Amino acid sequence: MRTLYLLIILFIFQPIFSQEIAYFTLKLDESYLNTPVSITLDNTDKYSFTDKKIVLYEISNNKEVYVPSQVESGSRPILWFIPDNVSGGKTDRNFVIKLIETDQSVKEQDQFQISKSGGNLTLYKDSSPILSYRYRTMYPPEGVDPLFERSGFIHPLYSPGGEVLTRVQAPDHYHHYGIWGPWTLTHIDDREVDFWNLAKGQGTVKFNSFLSEVSGDVYSGFKVLQQHIDFGNKGEDQIAINEVLEVRVWNVDENVWIVDYTTTFNSPLKNGIVFDAYRYGGGIGFRATEKWEKNNSSVLTSEGKTRIDADGSRARWCIVEGETDVDDKRSGILFMSHPFNQQHPEPMRVWPMDANGGRGDLYFEFVPIRHDPWIIKPHQDYTLSYRMVVFDGELNKDTAEAYWNSFANSPKIEIKFKK
User: Fold this and answer.
1) Of 143, 186, 294, 327, which one is least surrounded by beta carbons within 10 A?
2) Using one digit for the tens of pLDDT, what is the confidence trace for 66-89?
3) CA distances in angstroms from 412 to 28, 292, 327, listed in the order given
């Protein structure tokens, strides 16, 4: 995701029970849908936070209405919130940021939960599971080559109605792991190394450690370190790529999950690594539930392509959906690529209608190296950002476009100060 970095000159106003930090006007229109908004809080070191917290209010009809918000800590703290959806054209929304005493009456929400069990970290909202991240090694079924073991992937991903949408270790592709993104055809100096096709024994991807876990009013998620391991190095195995994967789930009112998937990676190797052009690799890959095949599922891209002609084409977003057992009878995922991504609009891999012996199982991936190689220089960071809207029922192209516009473009904010 792209954070809107905004300099706020802090203005001190001191009523008896609170301090105003700043206030601002947010400009939204009907093209924005479920938009997380961020403001960077500069110069907060001049305030005392002992027994105080940052709170956001919307100014409406001369009244201050509490707005759930969440502060992302760091050297420059970031305040996140999700304004109510807007209808009826353009509108200006006015807000004030305050420091208040922690014992003042402010409604707190506790909708998210995080748990670890059996090698999985699972995110919940109102006790309903959203997704699990596998941090412990998952072994293949008995009798299958142990090279297919791996960790560091998302499965299950649930629809809001509780339908599992991902699949792992399908007998036709034991190396498929729900939602994941290993690089496939790569070169380290003059050696080819494949981190995707595990049976080659050239490399794999492993979970290394948790970097952070967070849960609040606005979002919940985690950040992990994953590593692409090169098995073919002379001597011991070596780390070819260090990857920080951040997964964040947003607290929206609609009956959808909005999940951000951001990967930042670099190579510690002396000469870096080359991602060769190939139809698979990196980005974000999705092996769909075994329920979906050519007769009960569909694909629609931002450019109007369907499963018949989407493969190899470029898109800003892609809807992947199919028949499920929820009340609405169908579920799906809107995958979105951020404009800052490599090769955006991104090329895709979409399995043809006759995949897997004619059954037409469904596989989708954004593949930034589909048509062109990508040279990864040593010790330089690269980032790919994706957003998933997970839904039950149907999602049309106009709604998909609104979601993408919200993801790709930060709304305008005008800062105002009291005189």
Assistant:
1) 143
2) 999 999 987 788 999 999 876 555
3) 7, 41, 38
